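Could you join me in thinking about how sequence relates to backbone shape in a protein? To get us started, please write out a protein record for me. Would you write everything just below, so we can both look at the same thing?
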Amino acid sequence: ERPQRELKYLREIKGDEDNVEVLGTILNVFDLRFFAVDPDTNKRVSDEDVAAGKPHTMNYVTTVVLDDGTAQLRVTCWKNQTQHLFGLSNEELLKWKDDPSLAAQPKHDLLGEIIKIIGRAKKNEQFERIQLTASLVIKDVDPEKELARLKDKPAPETKPEEPKEVEAPAVIAPSPETSPTPAAEPVV
C-alpha cells in the first residue's frame, strides 16, 4: 500500500514537484488536440511522414482549468487520463477528430465537477504559471472525506491586495446661470 499523499491547496504548489495531489472544481475544458505518433516508439510523427504513408496511430491531449478556492491551475491530461476524465474509450474520443461537435456535451458535463488529480507540477516559463500534468484522474470523489483531510490543515496565506489610490471626481457646484429655476406657482 502506498503512503497517503498530502492533499495540497492549489496556491501551495510552487512547481517542480512530483506526486502532487489536488482537489478542485472544473471551470473550463479545452478542445482535444490530436497528433500522430509512431505505434512502436510512441514518438510524434510529422504531418509530412503521415502524408508519405508512415505507419502511425493517433494520440490526443486536453487541458482543464481547476479551482479550489485558493487558486486556479491548468491540468494537462494525456491520452489515458483524458479517457478517465471523460469516461470514454479511445475509439469514442478519436471520433471527435472528424466531428468536433461530438465533444460539446461531454465537455459541458464536466464543468462544475469536483475531481482529484495526482500528477507532476512544473512551472511553465513561457507563460509564467504553474501547470500540472495528470498521472491519475479520480472522478468518484467523496467531498466529505476530502474536506476532512483538509480540516486540520490551515488554508495557505494569501497576500493582501495593495491598496489602490483612487482619485475621486471633483464636485462642482452648479453656477447660478445653470441652476434650474423653480417653476412658477400657478395662480388660482
The beta strands are 7-8, 17-29, 33-37, 57-67, 72-78, 114-124, 129-138.
